[in-house]
From TrEMBL:
Enzyme type, top EC level: ligase
Name of encoding gene: proS
Protein's recorded name: Proline--tRNA ligase
GO molecular function: ATP binding; proline-tRNA ligase activity
Lineage: Bacteria, Pseudomonadati, Pseudomonadota, Alphaproteobacteria, Hyphomicrobiales
Gene Ontology CC annotation, any one: cytosol
C-alpha cells in the first residue's frame, strides 16, 4: 500500500475526550472514529487489525472443533419472551419496532437464537457434541460507554454455544473452549489469566473470565503470579482427549485467581506473599456452563441412548475482538505510539523513503516495495513528499513491527536501515539483505 494513496487520517493533537492511552492512540493513529456515544466507525487501519484479531480467534475456535455460522444482529422480542429474558434484560437492550409494530431488538447476545436454531434440527444424542459460533456485532446500551472500543455500545463479539447430552459432556466442551482461549490470547501477544467468575443462580464453579492485567482495567483482581509464566497448550493439542484436556484446565485453575466479585480473602491469604498479585484487569473473554437454563424453557431436547428425551446441556463462550484491540494497545505501547505484536499488526513493514524525488532513494524504495510485496510481506510504503521527521513519527505512532529507512546517506554505501519498532534496534543492511531478512 502506498501511503500517498491510502486513507490514514492521523491526528496531530491528542484528543481531549480520550482518558486512557489505547483510546488516545486509536484516535491519533486514525483507526477509529466516534459516530455517536459508544458507536465507532472502523477506519482502514483499525479494520485491518480487527480482521487480524478476528482471524486468530476464528482459527483457534475451528482448531478446537467449533463450527462457524452467522446469525443476524436483529432478533425478535418473542424469542426472548420464551426464555423470560425479554423483560429481565432491562435498559441495556436496544428495543426496536418495525413498520408492522412488531417488537424487535438489536442482539446483545445470542443464547435464545442459537437454542431456537438447535431445536429446529437436532433430535438425537448422536448429533452431539456440537459447538456453533459466530463473530457478529452486538449492541448493549451501556450505562457508561467509555474508553473508546474498550466499553462501547456497538462492539464485535465472538460467541460460541455448546450442546451436550449431559454435564460430563458439557464439561469437556467447556474445557475445549478454555484451552482454545489460552491459545487465542497468547497468539495475540497477551497474558490472559482465567479467573473464577460469578455463575449467578446456576451455581457450580464453571465460569471463568479471562483477564488481562492493566492499570486501566475496570475489574479488580487477585491472583497468584505464577500464572504469568505458565506454558500455553501447543497447537497440536488433541481436543478430543478428555483427560489430558482436563489436566490442562486443572493446572490452569489450581492456583488462586479471582475477580473482586468472587474474591475470598481467606483463600488469598494462603498465597505466599511474594506471589500475591492484586491488580486491575480487563475482561477480554468469558466462558460459562449453564446447564439447561435455556434448553428447558425453550424445549431444546434430544433423545438419549436410553430412548428418553431430555433437555441439552449448554454453555456459552464470548470473546470481544474490538475490546481486545484496546487491551493489546494498553499492554504494548510507548511514548511514541503503538507497538503491535506481529500477529495482529496492520502491516508487516513500513518502508520510509526519506528523500522522495532523489533518483537513488526512489529506485531503492520502489524496488524494495516490489520485492517485499512479491514475497508476501504486507508493506506500507511512505512515498509522500514529506520531511523525514514526520515519517518517523507516523511510523512509530501506527506501530508497524519493522521499519525500513531509505535515505541518501546510507544508500551511498549501498545500505538501508532496518529498525525494530519494539526494541528500537537498528541495523544497516544491503537492499537484498533486508529482503532476505524480512521474508
Ligand atoms: P463487562 O463486565 O465488561 O461489562 P460482560 O461481562 O458484560 O463485560 P460478556 O457478556 O461476558 O461481557 O461478553 C463477552 C465478552 O464481550 C466480554 O468478555 C468482552 O470481551 C466483550 N464485551 C462485553 N461488553 C463489551 C462492551 N461494552 N464493549 C466491548 N466489548 C465488550
Ligand atoms: Mg457488561
Ligand atoms: Mg463482566
Ligand atoms: Mg462477562
Amino acid at each position: 500500500m502506498r501511503l500517498s494513496r491510502y486513507f490514514l487520517p492521523i491526528l496531530r493533537e491528542t484528543p481531549k475526550e480520550a482518558e486512557i492511552v489505547s483510546h488516545r492512540l486509536m484516535l491519533r493513529a486514525g483507526m477509529i472514529r466516534q459516530e455517536a456515544a459508544g458507536i465507532y466507525a472502523w477506519l482502514p487501519l483499525g479494520l485491518r487489525v480487527l480482521n487480524k484479531v478476528s482471524a486468530i480467534v476464528r482459527e483457534e475456535q475451528n482448531r478446537s472443533g467449533a463450527i462457524e455460522l452467522l446469525m443476524p444482529t436483529i432478533q425478535s422480542a418473542d424469542l426472548w419472551r420464551e426464555s423470560g429474558r425479554y423483560d429481565a434484560y432491562g435498559k441495556e437492550m436496544l428495543r426496536i419496532q418495525d413498520r408492522h409494530e412488531r417488537e424487535m431488538l438489536f442482539g446483545p447476545t445470542n443464547e435464545e437464537m442459537i437454542t431456537e436454531i438447535f431445536r429446529g434440527y437436532v433430535r438425537s444424542y448422536k448429533d452431539l457434541p456440537l459447538n456453533l459460533y459466530h463473530i457478529q456485532w452486538k449492541f448493549r446500551d451501556e450505562m457508561r460507554p467509555r474508553f473508546g472500543v474498550m466499553r462501547s455500545r456497538e462492539f464485535l463479539m465472538k460467541d460460541a454455544y455448546s450442546f451436550d447430552l449431559d454435564q460430563a459432556g458439557a464439561v469437556h466442551s467447556y474445557n475445549k473452549m478454555f484451552v482454545a482461549y489460552l491459545r487465542t490470547f497468547a497468539r495475540l501477544g497477551l497474558k490472559a489469566i482465567p479467573m473464577r467468575a460469578d455463575t449467578g443462580p446456576i451455581g457450580g464453579n464453571l465460569s471463568h473470565e479471562f483477564i488481562i492485567l492493566a492499570s486501566t482495567g475496570e475489574s479488580e483482581v487477585f491472583c497468584h503470579s505464577d500464572y504469568l509464566d505458565y506454558e500455553i497448550p501447543p497447537a497440536d493439542t488433541d481436543f478430543d482427549d478428555v483427560s489430558s484436556l482436563q489436566g490442562t484446565v486443572d493446572k490452569w485453575t489450581s492456583l488462586y485467581a479471582a475477580t473482586s466479585e468472587m474474591h475470598d480473602t481467606a483463600a488469598f491469604d494462603g498465597v505466599p506473599d511474594d506471589k500475591k498479585m492484586s491488580a486491575r484487569g480487563i475482561e477480554v473473554g468469558h466462558i460459562f456452563y449453564f446447564g439447561t437454563k435455556y434448553s428447558e424453557p425453550m424445549g431444546a431436547k434430544v433423545m438419549g441412548p436410553d430412548g428418553q428425551e431430555r433437555p441439552v446441556h449448554m454453555g456459552s463462550y464470548g470473546i470481544g475482538p474490538s475490546r481486545l484491540i484496546a487491551a493489546i494497545i494498553e499492554a504494548s505501547h510507548d511514548e511514541n505510539g503503538i507497538i503491535w505484536p506481529e500477529s495482529v499488526a496492520p502491516f508487516d513493514v513500513a518502508l520510509l523513503n526519506l528523500k522522495v524525488g532523489d533518483a537513488g532513494t526512489d529506485a531503492a524504495s520502489e524496488r524494495l516495495y516490489r520485492e517485499l510485496s512479491a514475497a508476501g510481506c504486507d508493506v506500507l510504503y511512505d512515498d509522500r513528499d514529506e520531511r523525514p521527521g514526520g515519517k518517523f513519527a507516523t511510523a512509530d505512532l501506527i506501530g508497524v513491527p519493522w521499519q525500513v529507512l531509505i535515505g541518501p546517506k546510507s544508500l551511498a554505501e549501498g545500505k538501508v536501515e532496518l529498525k525494530n519498532r519494539a526494541t528500537g534496534a537498528r541495523e544497516l543492511l544491503s537492499v537484498d539483505g533486508v529482503v532476505s531478512r524480512l521474508t
